Automatic annotation (TrEMBL):
Organism listed in the record: Vagococcus entomophilus
Superkingdom per UniProt: Bacteria
Protein name in UniProt: Uncharacterized protein
Spans traversing the lipid bilayer: 25-50, 56-74, 105-124, 130-153
Keywords assigned by UniProt, alphabetized: Membrane, Transmembrane, Transmembrane helix
Length: 157
């Protein structure tokens, strides 16, 4: 996936991009640590007991962020250390076919998420009005952000 907004011309430029990605992965791992710390410290600080179910969810999310962020950071470090892997990954990532496949996959995923949220919102209204309004609000936020991004990028390009 190419999340850069510039064309990468050589391995040194790509190395910078990979290092930035590695830092983002370390930030994700740190967010996992922060999630676990808040889960364990917050109940004693505010005197509010978290249910076992919610505690399990937060624990899973925290450890998931830590493990995925750490593993990806290690993978990116190995890519940066090997010039052969770096060149191969740069060519792979900036292949026009891969970029088109990625763009289409994001479109399908976004539309699917939008449709599912829409139906959950309207079906959920039969059972829980607050939940339904949250889902409808998510659909509205998605459409608003999409429209804003489309107009912004249209004017820039």
């Amino acid at each position: 996936m190419n999340f850069t907004n510039k064309t990468i011309q050589n391995d040194e430029q790509y190395k910078e991009v990979v290092n930035k990605r590695r830092n983002k992965m370390l930030l994700i791992a740190f967010m996992g640590v922060l999630t676990l710390l808040l889960l364990w410290l917050l109940p004693s600080m505010i005197g509010f007991q978290i249910s076992d179910f919610a505690s399990g969810i937060y624990t899973g999310v925290g450890f998931g962020l830590i493990s995925s962020g750490s593993i990806k950071a290690i993978q990116l470090k190995k890519i940066v250390q090997s010039s052969e892997k770096l060149k191969k990954k740069r060519i792979e990532e900036h292949d026009e076919r891969i970029l088109e496949i990625s763009l289409r996959a994001y479109k399908v995923a976004g539309i699917s998420l939008l449709v599912v949220a829409y139906f959950i919102g309207f079906i959920g209204m039969l059972f829980n009005g607050v939940f339904a309004w949250i889902m409808v609000l998510l659909v509205g936020v998605f459409l608003g952000v999409y429209t804003l991004a489309f107009v912004t990028y249209k004017n820039k390009m």
